[in-house]
Amino acid sequence: MSRTNSTSRAVALTMGLLLILSLLAGVCPASAGEPAGSGPDSAQRLSGDWSTHQPGASTWYAFEYAGDSSQVTIRLQAEPPDSLAFGVWTPGNVRDWRLGLKAEPVGRGSPDSGSPGRLAWSGSFTVAGTYYVVVEGQGGQSETSYYLLEIEGTGVTLSAPAPTPTPTPRAQPAGSGSRPAAAPPAGRLVFQTSMGGPIYVVNADGSELRRLTDGMDPTWSPDGREVAFARWRDPRGIWVIAADGSNEWRAFDWGEARWPSWSPDGSQILFSRQYGGRTDETERCFWGFCFTLPAHPHWKLGIVRTADGEFREPKAPNYCLAPTWSPILDDGSSRLLYADEQGLKVQNEDASVAYFITRDSRDTSPVWSSDGSRVAFTRRQHDHWEVYVADADGRNPRRLTDTPVRADGELGNSAAPAWSPDGQYLAFLTDRSGKWEIWIMRADGTQQKPMFPGGLGGISLDYASLGERAISWTR
User: Fold this and answer.
1) How many CB atoms lie within 10 A of CB 197?
2) Is 434 in contact with 440 (CB distance < 8 Å)?
3) What angle do CA 359, 102, 130 make, to 5 degrees?
4) Cα–Cα distance for residue pair 364/343, rounded to 1 Å
5) How far apart (Å, rounded) are the C-alpha atoms in residues 468 and 101?
């Protein structure tokens, strides 16, 4: 018997065993919710075994890459030959896809000249993070296929990353571990109606509603006397206005700046601004093969001192969205928190301390609790938004909202959380009723209800899914 025949018989035997196991298991997902491997949220880790692939399916695999420019080699052997294909997705590609932007894999498998019937791809990257390989049918796959996927490289880790040790945030009050009974919500909210639309102020009980100005991403100063916001109509930039609507002035002149956040002492404002990167779609061609790279502008951190306009750039990556400045922590320091292409990242200004609290590129709009012990944020659930909370060191992540399907059959959303000054409540936007409203819940996710059941004087709200920080709450 030839070696080729022996190999074919072994492959056939493996396929038969896989088919039997699939029938016995009912081809059910391993856990409730999204089936394993059906998207980046549930991407599988490579097992090294042959797998089955059903017509019309896509199977996602995740691997970690060190970002050290070392070579990554991916190979796919399929039976029947030519029935499957694969694409390679970077963290940035996946983030754009989750945001609903035009996104394509950075590479696709092509015939391996050294092994007929097998597809291969090789390349390298300079950004560390979670990368993906997506196996799909091709050529009108009409029956079950079987495949063996291999991912190799010195900078490749096939297992999920271990949690990164981080500094200990401010401790919670001693006691039984349960939170004290919450007092009725108090204080004032500032909120935007839409991106660049009117900004309003209202008391937590719904009284004294009044228009303040127009812009986006409004946020209270630590003493509650001023509001910083971004404006994209001329004159553009980061602006400040007194809480009573007087003394509106521009703190920083820039065409496209967003997400202002005050320093703990109120003397400086952190923000992100579009600066450099690939601002337009770009066509690239190699060896007769042409493809279009989507726009991927840089969003760089900036800090401006309000007293004299002095500006500086923290040492940070080129892609920092929705930045926010922490309160003073137990060690006397403060931290910057933002969404980058791999998840939510915390660092000090010179980046000598830097760590991730989540490793999910869907996460955006993070906000610190007033004592710095927790972070609330918005996460994309493949096709809708939900509100999450985690300890400031990334431990104990919890989903707080499970937005019901709306009366019109569309999936509801919950987004843009804002902490109450005492840390007992979260206000957030939701469209579960069929229109966007401000709702409120306890910090543990219970008692979700409209914050202003009588409405807001006919004011309409909108959420553009652009990571907007739509609400801010002060004393």
Assistant:
1) 15
2) no
3) 20
4) 8
5) 16
pLDDT of 287: 80
Alpha carbon distance 53, 180 (integer Å)? 52
Residue 52's closest CA among 5, 17, 99, 9? Answer: 17
Residue 18 φ then ψ, to 5°? -60, -40
φ, ψ for residue 289 (rounded to 5)?
-105, 125
Contact 468, 365 (CB under 8 A): yes
- Measured CA to CA, the distance from residue 138 to residue 378 in angstroms comes to 35
C-alpha span between 357 and 6 (Å, rounded): 50
pTM, two decimal places: 0.65
Identify whether the C-beta of residue 20 lies closer than 8 Å to the C-beta of residue 52. no
pLDDT in the model for residue 3:
40
Q: How far apart are CA 300 and CA 314, in angstroms?
A: 9
Matching residue, tokens 């271990």: 162
Q: What is the pLDDT of residue 239?
A: 98
pLDDT digits (tens, 9 = 90+) for 325-371: 999 987 788 999 999 999 999 999 999 989 999 999 889 999 999 99
List, in order of start, the domains of the chain with CATH numbers: 36-157 (2.60.120.380), 188-474 (2.120.10.30)
Residue 280: predicted pLDDT: 87
| DSSP letter for each residue of 12-75 | HHHHHHHHHHHHHHTT--SSSSSPTTSSGGGPBPP-SS-EEE-TT-EEEEEEEE--S---EEEE
Q: What is the largest CA-CA distance in the chain?
A: 91
End-to-end CA distance of the chain: 83
**Contact (CB, 8 A) for 264 and 326:** yes
* Mean pLDDT, residues 405-429: 96
Supply the pLDDT for residue 32.
Answer: 41
User: Which residue blocks in 47-203 are alpha helix, DSSP H?
Assistant: 91-98
- Contact assessment for residue 472 and residue 419, using Cβ atoms and an 8 Å cutoff: no
Based on its alpha-carbon atoms, the radius of gyration of the chain, rounded to whole angstroms, reads 25
CA distance 324 to 345: 11
User: What token pair was written down for 441?
Assistant: 């819940």
Task: Work out the number of other CB atoms within 10 angstroms of the CB of residue 402.
Answer: 12
- Tell me the pLDDT band of 419, cut-offs 50, 70 and 90: very high
* Residue scoring higher pLDDT (8 or 422): 422
- Report d(CA 322, CA 95) in Å as an integer: 14
Element (H, E) at 336: strand 336-339
Q: What is the pLDDT of residue 20?
A: 41
- The answer to whether 86 and 73 are in contact (CB under 8 A) is no
